[in-house]
Amino acid sequence: VFPSLAQAQASVANEVYQQLGQPSIFLFCPTEYCSSLCSPSPSKSCYLLTLGQELLPGIGVIWTGPKVVSRELSAALLEEVEGVLQRCPVIWDNLYANDYDCRRVFLGPYTGRAPGLMPRLQGLLLNPNCELQANFIPIHTLGSWFQSELRSCGHADHAGMETATALEDSQGIQEGSYSPQEALELALLDWVAEINRQALEPGR
């Protein structure tokens, strides 16, 4: 029925999106969801070019970066992806994912993401460790990164700035660019306090 996989996927996604009343958040994960899966590159991928042309503008497209698990995300890469998809991508960040190797747990700060990425993102999802409590530092430091991005983003909305102010009041983060080391230290302080609080609960 369809001349290509991309056209088939776009047709189905568009129909579902419309049947649901075009919700404000509707995410589509492409078959080529990172640079290493694109042939020969994101900007020259016939598959992604077709999706960019065929998918309705309100549909968000998920992207993981250069690889499935990306150590770094750059503004240049996101600009390339935005150009081919004709929309800012939703980053599905696998930095902390350990479902492919459950012998490992990732406890470091959110890092490797260039400052000033927020204007090039439609959203950001963090794929966490499988172990729930191991995600305290990842989520806490992601919050610090987000706050720093809001401060540096000239067109942050009012609600976002209120969120940033509340985070700043609670965490004591200083003005300036995001520091993974400072974010880690703040997260550790709060995590130790949380562990001590739980240790004092009845039945612990």
TrEMBL record:
Q: What is this protein called?
A: OGA GlcNAcase
Q: Which domain of life is it from?
A: Eukaryota
Question: What PANTHER family does the annotation carry?
Answer: O-GLCNACASE, PROTEIN O-GLCNACASE-LIKE
Its GO biological process annotations read: glycoprotein metabolic process
In its UniProt record, a GO molecular function of this protein is: beta-N-acetylglucosaminidase activity
Native species: Jacana jacana
User: GH84 domain: from which residue to which, for each copy?
Assistant: 1-150
Name the PROSITE patterns on file: GH84
Q: Which InterPro entries did the record assign?
A: GH, Glycosyl_Hydrolase_84, O-GlcNAcase_cat
